[in-house]
Amino acid sequence: MNATDKLTEFDASPGIKEKLLKYGTVKTFSEGETILNENAYIRSIPIVMSGNVKVIRTDDEGREILLYYIRSGESCIMSFLGGLHQDTSKVRAVAEEEAEVLFLPVDKVSELIKQYPEWLDYIFRLYHKRFEELLDVVNAVAFRKMDERLVNFIKKKSEITGAKTLYVTHEQLANELGTARVVVSRLLKQMEDEGLVKLGRNKITVL
Q1: CATH value at residue 161
Q2: What are 38-52's pLDDT values in tens digits?
Q3: Which domain holds residue 183?
Q4: Considering just the CA atoms, what is the radius of gyration of the chain in Å?
Q5: Are 26 and 79 in contact (CB under 8 A)?
């Protein structure tokens, strides 16, 4: 599959694909590699061409919480907003698996909006999707118990990766859920006893 074919969100507009590849720079990131750091100035907008990227927020004490995933053909709306307002990033983006990312210079975003109305539609659709995902995070933190959050999180992670076995540590899960490792370990053991998962060394198999 060539680079043009990977821009699946723009099938209706070959012209946008051509401009994105003309203006942008494609880079490959390994699993766990940071794509965008918090507090860094946003010079370009990342568009995921393949793989999955997780977007994380860190508080002043270093605790993390997962906000949402960026899949192939999608971008980070926070990067759009921060880049357009010449602001720093409020989130950190990390490759969940090996990922190809196209970086579009911020100054080209407005140019594409003027030339292609569907580009603006793409941005609005992203905004709507991310807003709903952030509401889910708020609802989960405010209203759901940690065991329910953990079950839903593992299911979503399995759905995104397309695998029943997740290679992840209890510490990583705790960080992404914004809780303590001991809490995650206890809940995972309960889930294993209930026949929901099978635990292994640094891996969880969804049953």
Answers
A1: 1.10.10.10
A2: 988 888 999 999 999
A3: 145-206
A4: 18
A5: no
